[in-house]
Design brief:
heterodimer, B: alpha/beta, Rossmann fold, 4-stranded antiparallel sheet, globular
Chain lengths: ~280, ~280
């Protein structure tokens, strides 16, 4: 009996893994199959030509630049708020504090809110503040979108941190601030994970930037200018009735995938550099 | 505040009720010592330490023994105010260290902790190099000169006998050391902040016999300069290294006194039972 149990369970595990892998291969395969022929150097190095983003000429450099600016801005803004918050609820407040419970609970809810709602919220915030569709508007909105997931993932790592290290530091006469500076090194892998999740959720999202960052054929040169983004250009290209333009959408998707890959690897690399002494 | 000498007089010539239980210890009390008066500790609503009165003589090793859960570690943590970090702990009573009640308002907790070097049960190295581990304490307490820091680090690594073992790789990660080496590193790190007292919370319980021996030898050397207070599980260790023994049970001090007297001629029935292994 036990052997069958073992075998069945093993089959389920292998099956699940294969299904996931299959879906991944199918998606990436489709993107590459349809996109590779359309992926030319012009796609990467030029802004759209021929007047408008639906055209067949030029490339999506405007969207590449916009997406990269946007995600770096959003990451910076989000980290600026996430790290202090996570440090506060984990290392300043006592373990059973109701405040940290409320914060965690609301972050869990915020994480579940669809991105279009963030977009709408960001848009109304921008109207209130008198900002037009612009890079800064997009950055703020995307930061709001990725903040819950970044905070929660960093928080989970911080919670798992053994109490020994804070105790050791405090008993050496360190202040809380000095303690946190050391703890952050230990939390580097968690920080990297948080950044990866933030990138993944932020860079690929179209709904948040639809109203807030706008769309343009130019590369933004200031925070007040609208910025194009890759998800939106994919969206617009796919919506075109012309097949050539549709294929360009897949090429854009390849570019987006590669950007995510590069950012992920660099985040991992940087975090391993920083935490060289921790493991 | 009663001065230590006055306390001594009171204790020797006319024992008053509240000081009756202050233990007669080997050495004469003077200024540099720890004196605990009517210490009560509650964690949430639980009464963990009950009316502790104790004087700890300087430059000696005092071992606190007792079965698990008797409050030994809680007691040790009151000495460097680590309970400040947990709001569910309530402390009443007085702990005089160098004639100053560390729980008085206005006493800087950092200063108190700087006076107490704590060696934890499991060695916990900081996520940095061996060198930086030892240099960490002096640095946060304001030592800036590179040369002085270098000297301090080498001095204390030599003191704990780690220098020759790690000489070529002080810049590599501390976590790569063996667990016994890590514990000695932690001791060096604690000593580098130049404390006056050394607290050990079952500091050898995670170590192999050889490393344990090294740490014990260090403790014996340390008592020439420092007052050492150790919580220990093993009676044999207490017998080997302690000058004075404090036996705790269920949050109270049952008996205390010089080691030989304590082991050879225990006064209380409970102590005799514990020593004979009737309970642990």
């Amino acid at each position: 009996m036990k052997q069958y149990e073992e075998r069945i369970f093993k089959l389920i595990m292998i099956g699940a893994s294969l299904i996931i892998l299959g879906i991944l291969v199918y998606i990436v395969g489709t993107i590459f199959y349809k996109g590779l022929p359309a992926l030319t150097w012009d796609m990467i190095s030029k802004v759209p030509g021929g007047g408008f983003y639906l055209g067949k000429e030029g490339g999506v450099l405007n969207a590449i630049a916009g997406s990269v600016y946007l995600i770096f801005g959003a990451l910076a803004l989000s980290l600026f708020l996430s790290v202090p918050l996570v440090m506060y609820i984990n290392f300043y407040l006592p373990g059973k504090s109701w405040f940290s419970k409320i914060v965690r609970f609301s972050l869990d809810i915020l994480f579940g809110i669809p991105s279009i709602v963030y977009g709408a919220f960001g848009f109304s915030l921008m109207i209130y503040l008198g900002i037009r569709a612009s890079l800064i508007g997009g950055i703020i909105t995307v930061a709001m979108l990725i903040m819950p997931i970044m905070m929660r993932s960093l928080d989970e790592v911080a919670r798992l941190l053994s109490r020994d290290l804070p105790d050791a530091l405090l008993s050496l006469g360190a202040t809380r601030y000095e303690m946190i500076k050391v703890l952050l090194r230990q939390l580097m892998p968690g920080l990297a994970t948080a950044i990866l999740l933030g990138i993944g959720r932020g860079i690929g999202d179209a709904a948040t930037v639809l109203f807030t960052a706008g769309y343009t054929d130019n590369i933004p040169t200031s925070l007040n200018q609208p910025a194009a983004t890759l998800p939106l250009s994919i969206f617009f290209q796919l919506g075109s009735p012309v097949e050539e333009v549709q294929n360009r959408a897949y090429a854009s998707a390849i570019i987006l995938t590669v950007i995510i890959l590069i950012l992920s690897f660099s985040a991992r690399y940087i975090s391993s550099k920083f935490s060289k002494n921790s493991i | 505040m009663i001065s230590a000498n006055k306390l001594l007089e009171t204790r020797t010539f006319k024992p008053v009720l509240e000081l009756e239980r202050v233990t007669p210890l080997k050495k004469v009390l003077n200024k540099h010592t720890i004196r605990i008066e009517n210490l009560d500790v509650y964690i949430e609503e639980q009464h963990i330490l009950k009316g502790i009165n104790l004087a700890i003589p300087e430059k000696s090793i005092t071992c606190i023994i007792g079965p698990s859960g008797c409050g030994k570690s809680t007691f040790l943590r009151t000495l460097n105010r680590m309970h400040d970090e947990s709001p569910e702990v309530r402390i009443s009573g007085k702990i005089y260290i160098d004639d100053e009640n560390i729980y008085d308002q206005g006493v800087n907790v950092i200063d108190t902790r700087k006076k107490m070097g704590l060696l934890a049960q499991r060695p916990c190295t900081l996520p940095m190099s061996i060198f930086d581990n030892v240099a960490y304490g002096p640095r946060i307490h304001g030592l800036k000169k590179r040369k002085v820091i270098n000297q301090t680090v080498i001095k204390y690594l030599q003191y704990v006998g780690l220098w020759d073992e790690v000489r070529g790789r002080v810049r590599s990660s501390a976590s790569r050391l063996s667990i016994g080496q890590q514990q000695r590193l932690c001791l060096a790190r604690g000593l580098a902040i130049e404390p006056e007292y050394i607290l050990g919370d079952e500091a050898t319980s995670a170590l192999d016999p050889l490393s344990t021996k090294k740490i014990e030898e260090l403790f014996i050397r340390l008592k020439e300069k420092y007052t050492v207070i150790l919580v220990t599980h093993t009676l044999r260790q207490a017998k080997r290294i302690a000058d004075n023994i404090v036996f705790m049970y269920l949050g109270k001090i049952v008996e205390s006194g010089p080691t030989e007297e304590f082991f050879n001629n225990p006064k209380k029935q409970l102590t005799r039972d514990y020593l004979s292994g009737s309970f642990s």
